[in-house]
Design goal:
Strand content: 15-25%
Number of strands: 22
Strand order of the largest sheet: 13-14-16-17-18-19-20-21
Structural class: alpha/beta
Shape: elongated
Distance between the termini: 106 Å
CATH topology of the largest domain: TIM Barrel
CATH superfamily of the largest domain: EAL domain
CATH architecture of the largest domain: Alpha-Beta Barrel
Number of domains: 3
CATH class of the largest domain: Alpha Beta
Number of helices: 22
Length: 570
């Protein structure tokens, strides 16, 4: 099949032009030819670049060397072959040095087909290489889903802007890190494909709101970044952030339904005088996470306090991981008193962290981070093991007291597939008395995943491990769940107990909870008992157990043992 290509023929002789074309056709080429013989016509034809230029050297209105120079000045790289009847060898060499691919004499056209074949093949290889490099660039520096610049390209552009800012502090810029709130819910409910289409819709809507001088990139997942360059004032960044946030007040149409998203945006600017692009992005990300932590759907401007908090958080994460290995955790025990006898009936085991630098750290300061790090299962297993070990020591020392211990578990631990087998293994290895170990879960956490909690509680019940519903009255548990779940104890939240001796509504709530528990054949533990008046009221209402500072704060194991030895009665 003839090889077709676009040919621009710079030739003033129609006869010579026909001869050239005939020679090419005989060699198997099918040139689509346009012929010119003047500079204006030649320049006009260069607006639609051909695949090859064949040019006579000496024309009345244009010479081959000038034609070659004009093509190069246009920034074009088109194979250029000189075909002339009067060019000298010295001039031909000069043209070759200027960029001509070859030169031929009109009376020796036997080499024309070979020369054309070579330059077209060379052009094809160059084009394939260019396309391959372009594909590689797109794959390396662009997000495959949206076509937006990716993290690598964004950081490259940001790095150039940072360098310019270092040379000229008047050159202002800002970076905005945007995270889509609620995106994971869309992904989990509608599927991966729908989530991808939503990401594309978001990116297209955002692109319409950025200047040509700015860079909008996707970091991955639901996170995007803006580089606002050459700002008149860094205050403009906050106005852009607010406009972007307002864009999300309009829903996205997805599979025939409206999807509402919000955006959390972190902002940082060149006022910090950065020296590294990674640090700019890091600080914008830190500010974005601050927004997430404060309720989402807003923007925050980075400050140094945020960085200090982020560094503190990072150190906390590292120390937490090492703390379990270094055995830095311990348990304190708060006594639970049986109100019918006034004696200690057991303890609630409460985890503490004996940090080597910060001293004793309370659980509220590290358990949330431990949950995010996936450490709750390991901490919970250790707590159960240690609490049961210590309980066995006390049971041996005080056999007549029938002591028990309560251990707190989170809903994440309930979702762990081997929780029941682990607890059974701990009970067997420590040899605690049957029915003396209780687990506690808060009412609000139970309602996060009632099915998982229910399944585990029924299995634990088979091993005589009783359950206690903590902070009762603060969540939204259904009475039907209370009826179905094997829960032995309801713990009245301390926010009600502490107001018992001063507010009628607190008394009414506590009285109702106790009556409800008894109606459901459950026992009641009152938390936060601090005064004798509160204790007296609870006794009069028929509450079975109580704990609080009136009896003792959470105690180290040695002090808890001393309390048992004293056999105190309240």
């Amino acid at each position: 099949m003839p090889t077709s290509f676009n040919l621009l023929l710079v030739e003033d002789s129609p006869t010579d032009a026909d001869l050239l074309l005939e020679t090419l056709r005989e060699a198997g080429f099918d040139p689509v030819c346009r012929r010119v013989d003047s500079k204006p016509d030649y320049l006009r034809e260069l607006n639609t670049p051909p695949d090859l230029i064949l040019s006579d050297f000496a024309l009345p209105q244009l010479d081959g060397k000038t034609a070659l120079q004009l093509m190069k000045e246009r920034g074009l790289d088109i194979p250029f072959i000189i075909v002339s009847g009067c060019i000298g060898e010295e001039m031909a060499v000069e043209c070759m040095k200027a960029g001509a691919a070859d030169y031929l004499l009109k009376d020796r056209l036997g080499r024309l087909a070979h020369s054309v074949s070579q330059v077209l093949e060379h052009k094809r290889l160059i084009e394939e290489k260019r396309q391959a490099e372009q594909r590689l660039f797109l794959e390396t520096f662009h997000d495959p889903l949206t076509g937006l610049p990716n993290r690598a390209l964004f950081l490259d552009r940001l790095g150039r802007v940072v360098l310019r800012n270092q040379r000229d502090r008047a050159h202002l810029f800002a970076v905005l890190h945007l995270s889509l709130d609620g995106f994971r819910i869309v992904h989990d409910s509608l599927g991966h494909s729908a989530a991808d289409r939503l990401v594309i819709d978001v990116s297209q809507r955002m692109l319409r709101r950025v200047r040509s001088a700015d860079t909008f990139a996707r970091l991955g997942g639901e996170e995007f970044v803006f580089l606002l360059d050459n700002l008149k004032s860094t205050d403009n960044a906050t106005r852009v952030a607010e406009r972007i946030r307002q864009e999300f007040t309009t829903p996205f149409a997805l599979d025939g339904q409206d999807i509402f998203l919000t955006a959390s945006i972190g902002v940082t600017s060149s006022t910090t005088e950065y020296e590294d692009a990674e640090h700019v992005l890091r600080d914008a990300t830190t500010a974005m996470h601050r927004v997430k932590g404060l309720g989402r759907s807003n923007f925050a401007i980075f400050d140094k306090v945020m960085h200090e908090q982020a560094m503190s958080r990072l150190k906390m994460e590292t120390d937490l991981r090492q703390g379990l290995e270094r055995e830095e955790f311990l348990l304190h025990y708060q006594p639970i008193v049986a109100l019918d006898t006034g004696h200690v009936a057991g303890f609630e085991a409460l985890i503490r962290w004996q940090h080597p630098e910060q001293g004793l750290i309370m659980p509220h300061a590290f358990l949330t981070i431990a949950a995010e790090l996936g450490m709750l299962a390991a901490l919970g297993e250790w707590s159960c093991q240690e609490a049961c070990r210590q309980l066995r020591v006390w049971q041996d020392a005080f056999p007549k007291m029938r002591l028990s211990v309560s251990v707190n578990l989170s809903v994440q631990q309930f979702a762990h597939p081997d929780l029941v087998s682990k607890l059974k293994e701990i009970l067997d290895s420590t040899g605690v008395e049957e029915g003396s170990v209780k687990i506690e879960i808060t009412e609000s956490e139970m309602m996060d995943n009632p099915k998982a909690v229910s399944d585990v509680l029924h299995q634990l019940n088979l091993h005589h491990i009783e359950a206690c519903l903590d902070d009762f009255g603060t969540g939204y548990s259904s009475l039907s769940y209370l009826q179905r779940l094997p829960i032995t104890f309801l713990k009245i939240d301390q926010s009600f107990v502490r107001r018992l001796d001063g507010e009628d509504d607190a008394l009414a709530i506590v009285k109702t909870i106790i009556a409800l528990a008894h109606e459901l054949n459950r026992k009641v533990i009152a938390e936060g008992v601090e005064t004798k008046e509160q204790l007296s009221i609870l006794r009069s209402l028929g509450c079975e157990y109580a704990q609080g500072y009136l009896f003792a704060k959470p105690l180290p194991q040695e002090e808890a043992g001393n309390l048992l030895a004293a056999a105190r009665r309240w």
